[in-house]
Amino acid sequence: MKAVLLAAGLGTRLRPLTDATPKCLVRIGERTLLDIWLESLGELGVDEVLVNTHHLAEQVAAHVATRMAGPPVRLLHEPSLRGSAGTLRAARDLLSDSPTFLVVNADNLTDYKLARLVTAHLEGDAPATLTAFHAPRPSECGILEVDDGGRLVGFEEKPARPRSDLANAGLYAFDREVLDLIDVPDPCDIGLHLLPRLVGRARVIGIGETYLRDIGTPQALAEARSSWREGAHR
Q1: Strand runs (DSSP E) across the chain, as ranges?
Q2: What dotted CATH number matches 2-229?
Q3: pLDDT tens-digit readout, 25-45
Q4: Are 26 and 7 in contact (CB under 8 A)?
Q5: Which of 16, 27, 112, 167 is a good FRET partner for 153, with 20 to 30 A between their CA atoms?
């Protein structure tokens, strides 16, 4: 199984930090977000991790070159940002030998065990399995509507009037056929363009009380560093 680690974003909300440091190389304690994710994917036993790059891509390449352990990494440079769904479409040939693949957002900090997602997906009957959590500020998230059987029956990205607080956690297991649903020009986004096409097709599982933080703002990053150091994720 392969995994796609989405890491090409500009990190504009974290400026000025990200003026000189790509978001995926921001440190949480002694490790970068990229290394935390690669360790997690390595524990799962993925065959290869595809990492997209754009902003300060040379720093990411240099960092990956220093790694002595973990899963093989292939960098996919994007001269112009394709968007998260556009990245998946561009990687179609590289995913051709992986009937199921994982997609994760590098700017999320979590200790969620990805094996739970893989198991749920392989035991299910859907081409896509999404993860969800209860968001304290649902209007800032992609909101999922799920029926009693765990099937996705509605999705809206950052709604002004959320119908629930069940939010997209940004951890996905996809079958290769999902790539056929990405049919708009780049840049195209998983939340805006792909997930609406998966309504009625995808399953949703909760991540429970698992630690999950988006480190997209200076305040969120400071809180994440503090809670991670204090072991709140354990």
Answers
A1: 2-6, 27-28, 31-32, 48-53, 73-77, 100-105, 108-110, 128-134, 142-146, 152-157, 166-175, 203-206, 212-214
A2: 3.90.550.10
A3: 999 988 999 999 999 999 999
A4: no
A5: 112
